[in-house]
Specification:
The chain is 58% helix and 11% strand. It is mainly alpha-helical.
Length: 182
């Protein structure tokens, strides 16, 4: 494996015969160790396509695409592209978690609105339930309903070992955020 570190990439051409139609699939391979590798090898593939489609009798050396590349160096905390991809996956996961956890209070709030509209809340108060007891009971019930998906989320994150949420440093903060959010 170590003997190939001097190569930053390559281009492969594969001819595929699909019935009577011949297609050529081009893949640009690159190593993310070199910041320049991806645009360079895509440019090589594009130049190959351009020169292959020239009319007969043309000089391929006269045609080409020139790419200028000024790569941005990544921060020391994320030394390679995998750091960025992990961060983007975790950001997407957070968005899905927020959406999923927003559904729980939304469904519970519709029940309280429905109670108010059909007069059940008034019936509770007429029956002798104090407002403090009514709201405390609703809070306890809502928290019990919320705890179930929150615990399931923590279990799933522990099973999959998503370090941003369940590492030794972050698990306490994440659980506290889930409780405060609920």
């Amino acid at each position: 494996m170590f003997r190939f570190h001097h190569r930053y990439g390559g281009v492969t051409f594969v001819d595929i015969k699909d019935g009577n139609v011949n297609r050529t699939v081009i893949k640009a391979w690159y190593s993310n160790i070199g910041y320049h590798a991806l645009p360079t090898y895509i440019n090589v593939a594009n130049n190959a396509l351009l020169r292959a489609s020239l009319p007969a009798g043309s000089n391929p050396a006269e045609y080409g695409i020139t790419a200028y590349n000024h790569p941005v160096e990544l921060a020391e905390a994320l030394p390679d592209i995998t750091g960025w991809s992990i961060a983007s996956v975790q950001f997407g996961l957070v968005l899905f978690l927020m959406t999923a956890l927003a559904m729980v209070p939304a469904t519970l709030s519709t029940l309280m609105v429905q109670e108010n509209l059909n007069g059940a809340k008034r019936l509770h108060f007429v029956s002798g339930v104090t407002p403090a007891r009514y709201w405390l009971t609703n809070l306890i019930w809502d928290m019990l309903i919320y705890i179930v998906p929150a615990v399931l989320i923590i279990i799933v994150l522990l099973i999959f070992g998503i370090e941003a949420f369940v590492s030794d440093q972050n698990v306490g903060t994440f659980i506290l955020l889930l409780i405060v959010y609920g």
